[in-house]
Write a structure and sequence with these properties.
3 domains; elongated; five-stranded antiparallel β-sheet; Rossmann fold; six-stranded mixed β-sheet; Uridine Diphospho-n-acetylenolpyruvylglucosamine Reductase, domain 3; 473 residues
């Protein structure tokens, strides 16, 4: 049988949890699990050339006791010359303001601190001490609350977090393994009395439910971990398929507050991918998924795709609205407003490039020849007879805007173009319009290409070429 250290090292290697020279934030509360984790990471620090930074958070829930926990961790780190960071948060205030449970409020505040310190220290990883018993508890809790395949994937060994990864090297260990490890290596730790209170849901599962199941089968936690691994493998494959689907048909705003797509394009995919797409979109929009989110919301969303009303909406937890406008669906929070015309206003030199608020770019250049065919929707070319065109202005729409559409006599209102193309109202102010220096609109990007009135003398001096590139290209 492998030792605890060898078991964890094998798990790290198999799941590629660490790389040499990494900076690792370590969440340490002072309890047995997290103290064992910092001991272990410190023992392999030289081999992996790691830079360790311990983070201890006082949740202001146990007065002097929680302050003593932080001081205990601080002293441990100072004795071993490990960089230490301490933060204090008010969980009860957040719980009251956002009407959530104590443990969820604590978790969100804690993860917010991890995110900030990850940026501050340019860390590669945040390491947490979740173990196999935590895995079994989590799977049970999720399954009871929301019986979906995702509930059975459990806690992941690693996941993206800010600009790095959140890792859990202790997932292959049982709680008894960790306590034995602490005893063998004389690792000090503190007991949190609140861990024995069944008032908290997780504690209830740990103290009441899990022991009953393990009476029936002592290997229950191990079996749950094996199930989690198999489910993750299947979910990873389906996730890849779903991500490809979203990349093809869904538009995401850069600020992670707005998503939209065409209904028919979404419904063209198998229902299995539609369900997963719904959850991936939610994970993109929510900083942390609401506890109250359930299969009912998923079913409501999928049913909503089939409503025959031209304009309709449904509400998801925490003020997230799903809106239908014509043949398009958008998801946004009540507090979200698309950036207005004054925000979208950029001068574009030729040659040159501008970056738009949604992360996309427009590049301008002069070419000697005009592209004759196969010009994409996101490319625009026109002859240049004078320099009166430049610089160009990339802006949002304005009242009364018109464009002289190629191949048509006269001008067309941009407002009518948006209506005809069924562009949701939420997106119209944010849609880029290209205007010449003399005030002529020549391109409503991706929708209509225009022609500018120019005094044509001899041959053109060249051809203006504009290319719009989405943020993910």
């Amino acid at each position: 049988m492998l030792s605890v250290k060898d078991t964890v090292l094998t798990f790290i290697k198999k799941n590629q949890l660490l790389h040499p020279g990494a900076t690792v934030l370590v969440g340490v509360s002072g309890g047995a699990d997290s103290m064992a984790l910092i001991y272990f990471l410190n023992s392999i620090k030289a081999h992996f050339k790691l830079h360790l930074i311990v983070v201890s958070v006082d949740h202001s829930l146990r007065g002097k006791e929680s302050e003593a926990d932080v001081l205990f961790v601080k002293n441990y780190c100072e004795e071993r010359q490990i960089t230490f960071e301490a933060e204090k948060v008010n969980v009860l205030e957040k719980k009251k303001q956002e009407k959530m449970g104590t443990q969820l409020a604590a978790r969100e505040l804690r993860y917010h601190i991890f995110a900030n310190l990850m940026k501050k220290h340019q860390a590669d990883y945040v390491a947490l001490a979740h173990h196999a018993d935590d895995q079994a508890e989590t799977m049970l809790m999720r399954f009871v609350r929301n019986a979906t395949p995702n509930a059975l994937t459990g806690i992941q060994p690693k996941r993206n977090f800010e600009d790095g990864r959140l890792i859990r090297p202790f997932l292959p260990l049982r709680k008894t393994d960790i306590l034995t490890f602490c005893k063998e290596h004389e690792i000090p730790f503190r007991e949190d009395p609140s861990n024995q209170s069944t008032d908290y849901t997780r504690n209830y599962y740990r103290l009441k439910i899990l022991p009953l199941l393990e009476e029936q089968n002592p290997l229950f936690s191990s079996h749950m971990n094996q199930l989690s691994k198999r489910m993750r493998e299947e979910q990873d494959y389906l996730r890849e398929q779903t991500e490809a689907m979203l990349k093809e048909i869904v538009t995401f705003s850069e600020n992670k507050k707005f998503v939209h797509f065409k209904i028919d394009a979404f419904k063209a995919y198998p229902i299995t991918l539609q369900r997963r797409a719904f959850h991936l979109i939610l994970s993109y929009l929510y900083q942390a998924l609401p506890i109250g989110l359930s299969a009912i919301h998923e079913d409501n969303f999928l049913s909503f795709l089939h409503t025959e009303r031209a304009n309709a909406s449904i509400e998801l937890p925490r003020g997230l609205f799903v809106k239908k406008v014509y043949d398009q669906i958008s998801l946004s929070f009540t507090s979200y407003q698309a950036f207005n015309q004054s925000t979208l206003r950029h001068s574009l030199e030729v040659p040159g490039e501008v970056c738009l608020p949604n992360g996309a770019t427009i590049t301008a250049s002069i070419t000697p020849h005009r592209k004759q065919q196969n010009e994409s929707t996101y490319e625009y070319t026109c002859p240049i007879y004078s320099d009166s065109f430049f610089p160009l202005l990339i802006r949002g729409r304005q009242n009364g805007d018109r464009i002289r559409v190629r191949g048509l006599l006269g001008h067309k209102k941009i407002k009518d173009i948006f209506i005809n193309e069924k562009i949701p109202k939420d997106l119209r102010d944010a849609w880029p319009v290209v205007e010449t220096m003399d005030g002529q609109i020549i391109w409503v990007v991706g929708l209509k290409k225009g022609e500018a009135i120019q005094e044509q003398k001899n041959s053109p001096k060249g051809y203006l070429k504009l290319v719009y590139r989405h943020a993910d290209n």
